[in-house]
Design goal:
The chain is α/β, with parallel strands linked by helices and 372 residues long. It folds into two domains: 90 residues, Up-down Bundle (Chorismate Mutase Domain, subunit A); 270 residues, TIM Barrel. It is 49% helix and 11% strand. The strands form two sheets. The protein has an eight-stranded parallel β-barrel with strand order 3-4-5-6-7-8-9-10, surrounded by six helices. Strands 1-2 form a two-stranded antiparallel sheet. Strand 4, helix 5 and strand 5 form a beta-alpha-beta unit. Helix 4 packs parallel to helix 5, helix 7 packs across helix 8 and helix 11 runs parallel beside helix 12. The longest helix is centred in the first third of the chain and has 40 residues. The radius of gyration is 24 Å and the shape is elongated. 37% of the residues are buried. The C terminus is likely disordered.
Length: 372
């Protein structure tokens, strides 16, 4: 063997030894991360500490002498962080309790996650007593069980309609109670929490607030059922970690809402990620609701997408409904009229009857059983 080939072989052997050392060190790091997660769980501390990751990266960048670039170092350690906080965590996390059998969230006699679809309908924003009264009356006749409506509206523009605030919330609750409906409405400010707790059945965390950890902790302590909407630029991992903030406050009554994510597509308002439905139910077994209105931003394809959502296992649908969508003060283009809502529910009946008859939450489960 020539000297150059022998030198090449020796260098490769050194790399092999370093690779084995790296593997041992990575596994040692993973074991320590598991211990840390266990200690955090025992003490009720948040599982995810982004400031700690930032501190580690800063130390590594300072110590990096090359030839690896800082970007390469950051990429390598981001992957380690991700594995530690998500892939390894479930065996010692509180979220372990939410793997396997599907969980059911109860609101009075309403059950979300029992294998039968629940409908949440109502206006994007509460605009008047008459509007929400008409909507509640009509939806109750269609079999919708939960009245949705925004009283505090997070709008992109500060000049857009911001909602009627507490007056709007009271209108929503009065109409719902009159027609035997439960209520869901978005809370944005922890200072309004007591007011919401006394009146609203389900507290909604909107997409913009999915990573508002102080708000997540506060609603977690409330003990109320929580509808947690996925952020439009958030991964499924980030969604589950947001849910864990609520869990760690002792509140297991979480319903996850997939409402579409932002992509380069322009024909829909967002891109509905139905894989999220299947993955959340597989990884944590939370009930999952699909928001058809915000994911699509249009009404003409709502029926086939609703069928697809139910077929892949979602536990219910959230749909914006208004007496006159053309005059709605927000999101009229994605809102159904009363007759359109009736047509949608009618069009879903064959699938709903099939799922009910088979007593299975999804066609996916039926397929798994058939080919097992």
């Amino acid at each position: 063997m020539s000297r150059s080939l022998q030198q090449l072989s020796e260098l490769r052997q050194q790399i092999d030894r370093i690779d084995l050392d790296l593997l041992r060190l990575a596994n040692s790091r993973g074991s320590l991360a598991l211990e840390i997660q266990q200690l955090k769980h025992e003490r009720g501390l948040p599982a995810y500490a982004p400031e700690r990751e930032s501190q580690i990266l800063e130390q590594l960048m300072t110590a990096n002498a090359g030839p690896l670039s800082d970007d390469a170092v950051e990429d390598i350690f981001h992957r380690l962080f991700q594995h530690s906080r998500f892939s390894l965590k479930p065996s010692n996390s509180m979220a372990t309790e939410y793997q396997g059998e599907s969980k059911v969230v109860s609101i009075g006699s309403i059950e979300i996650g029992n294998g039968q679809a629940v409908f949440m309908g109502g206006p994007c924003a509460v605009e008047s007593e008459e509007q929400v009264e008409q909507t509640a009356q009509w939806l109750s006749q269609l079999g919708v069980s939960i009245l949705r409506g925004g009283a505090f509206k997070p709008r992109t523009s500060p000049h857009s309609f911001q909602g009627l605030g507490r007056d709007g919330l009271d209108m929503l609750v009065r109409a719902a109670r009159r027609y035997g409906l439960a209520t869901v409405s978005e809370i944005m400010d922890p200072r309004d929490l007591d007011y919401f707790i006394e009146r609203v059945d389900i507290l909604q965390i909107g997409a913009r607030n999915m990573q508002n950890t102080p708000l997540l902790r506060e609603v977690g302590r409330s003990g109320k059922p929580i509808l947690l909407k996925r952020g439009f630029m958030s991964t499924i991992e980030e969604l589950l970690l947001a849910a864990e903030y609520i869990l760690l406050e002792g509140n297991p009554q979480i319903v996850v809402c997939e409402r579409g994510i932002r992509t380069f597509e322009t024909l829909t308002r967002n891109t509905l990620d139905l894989a999220c439905v299947a993955l959340v139910k597989r990884l944590r077994a939370f009930p999952v609701i699909v928001d058809l209105s915000h994911s699509l931003g249009r009404t003409d394809i709502m029926l086939p997408i609703a069928r697809a959502a139910l077929a892949c296992g979602c536990d219910g649908l959230m749909i914006e409904v208004h007496p006159n969508p053309a005059k709605a003060r927000s999101d009229g283009q994605q809102t159904l009229s009363f007759s359109e809502m009736a047509d949608l529910i009618s069009g879903l009946q064959p699938l709903l009857e099939f799922l009910k008859r088979e007593k299975s939450p999804s066609v996916w489960n039926l397929a798994e059983e058939s080919f097992a």
